Amino acid sequence: MTALNRRDLGLLVLRFGTGAVLAAHGTQKLLGWFGGGGIEGTTQAMEAMGFSPGRESAIAAGLGEAGGGALLALGLATPAAGAAAAGAMAGAVSVHAPAGFFAQGGGYEYPAFLGFTAAAIGIAGAGRYSLDHATGHVLDRPWVVATAFIGSALAAAAVVGRRVQTQSVQPDPWPEADADEQP
């Protein structure tokens, strides 16, 4: 009988915990679970945050979080799961960045932590206690790691860049108003 491997057990715990948090967060967006807004509420929120088109952005963010999180928890297609979750969190970081780093002040600390953790798991691999291991790592090859992370980085850069561009061309809602007269 083989003894439990502490490294692989640690990866299982880290994968499952991070994946469960991401999956729960994503199901708020997609299904309205856990007090979330569902697709309609998330669409409105995405549009208000400058993501366009709002519905497609809501679906992509929800799938990146829920799908990436579920796959991370299972340890299946771990590089793609980690890349998808990290890409979704890059969008969240862009929203929270103006408030600074710490979550206490509305900053990007929390989505950055989730994104870096998902990315690290995607790069490190799921470990022995995973569906990737059980399937002979068919979906966890070096080329999958490179392709998933390059694709996710390019997609995140395009989405965040489009958001920044959209925000910079929006007209000032109070062009004539004095700074202390604005609501």
Secondary structure: elements and pairs:
Layout: H1 6-31, H2 38-48, H3 54-74, H4 78-96, H5 109-124, H6 131-134, H7 142-169
Helix pairs in contact: 1-2, 1-3, 1-5, 2-3, 3-4, 4-5, 4-7
Could you explain how this protein is built, in words?
The chain is mainly alpha-helical. It contains 7 helices and no strands. The protein is elongated, with a radius of gyration of 19 Å.
Features:
7 helices; mainly alpha; 183 residues; single chain; disordered C terminus
- DSSP helical segment count: 7
Q: What value does the Rg take, in angstroms?
A: 19 Å
Number of strands: 0
The proportion of strand residues reads under 5%
Order of helices and strands: HHHHHHH
Mean of all residue-level pLDDT scores = 91
Based on Cα principal axes, name the global outline. elongated
Low-confidence runs (pLDDT<50, min 5 residues)?
177-183
How far from one another are the termini?
69 Å
Major sheet details? none
Helix content: 55-70%
Question: Which structural class fits the helix and strand makeup?
Answer: mainly alpha
Summarize the structure.
By secondary structure, this protein is mostly helical. The chain has seven helices and no strands. 68% of the residues lie in helices and 0% in strands.
